Amino acid sequence: ADGLQAAAAVKGLAFGSAVPITRFRQDRRWRSLAERECGILVCENAMKFSSVVPREGVFDSVAADETLRFARANGQRMRGHCLIWHEGLPPWAEAILASGSASRAETLMRQWIGAMARRYRGTIEAWDVVNEIVVPADHRPGGLRATPWLAALGPGYVDLAFQMLKDEDPGASAVYNENDCEQKADWIDERRSAILRLLEGMLKRGVPINRFGIQAHLTSNLPFDETTLRKFLREIAGMGLAIEITELDIDDRAFPADVAARDRGVADLARRFLETVFDEPAVLNVLAWDLYDPDSWLSIYPARRRPDGLPQRGLPFDAEYRRKPLWHAMHAAF
Ligand code: XIL
């Protein structure tokens, strides 16, 4: 095995990826890539609320279970993504959250978290309990994001979700997973402070949280500043929390169309980011948000699309399954 996991393991770290279910089911070459490169997997969508419970009373974990069986057969660990998020909510659950009844909302949360935690107890090592909960970067100041969960249950929804996971699967690590806290922007200090204040409050209240997840959807649109990221990581580690890099990819919109130049830009940004995060001993692992360029959500999401219409090249393998400069940068950083 000469994949990224082997390189990560030498440093006591792990490397893994999100699993896009259609690719996983249809493409043997992709599966052998995932076997060789990954020590830890996460479902890209298959464990989200709207995937598992698309209609009230339906519980469809077929795709999630298939992924889990694959991971176990290959000796790979698995993360769970994600329990409480403002996206990926099925319409029937949104209706309950909008009904004005806090007790119905709390029952909904308990049933959903309970069902997932019980089903995957002993197999999911860490759950993203809450995902993207602070106010989006461009809507300052910091504080909790306006979501259906916040509207239904008030700010206590965050603590409640962590407590519910703890009640059902005390052995799983509980993660607060967040985006837009990696690079330099005029809003970054405010955003990082909001995150740190939230974590401090939770710890003071005795909320059972173990880890902070940094999504790391890096972007060519923003500069990178090692010093302040290093400080942010130190502050989180200083609270006794472990850190995971949960969704690494690079939006290459601002890099040139030329493939070689673009791949260099992508690899260079990732290298600087990874070198910085690996200096922090609290960091446990890095997961890419897919392995193979044709699968990247960055090429599909309207807000992420390149103005020239070219597909994004933000993942370690190209459309021919070849290792890209990004792969080599990751390998060298481990
Ligand atoms: C994205 C998936 O990649 C897409 O396939 C899906 O349509 C929407 O969600 N942050 C997250 C992930 O936490 O769950 C998102 O995944 C990407 C941004």
TrEMBL record:
It is an enzyme of class 3 (hydrolase). It catalyses: Endohydrolysis of (1->4)-beta-D-xylosidic linkages in xylans. GO terms for biological process: xylan catabolic process. SMART domains: Glyco_10. InterPro entries: GH, GH10, GH10_AS, GH10_dom. The active site is at E247 (nucleophile). Residues 7-333 form the GH10 domain. Its EC number is 3.2.1.8. One of its GO terms (molecular function) is endo-1,4-beta-xylanase activity. Keywords: Carbohydrate metabolism, Glycosidase, Hydrolase, Polysaccharide degradation, Signal, Xylan degradation. Pfam families: Glyco_hydro_10 (PF00331). Belongs to the glycosyl hydrolase 10 (cellulase F) family. This is Beta-xylanase.
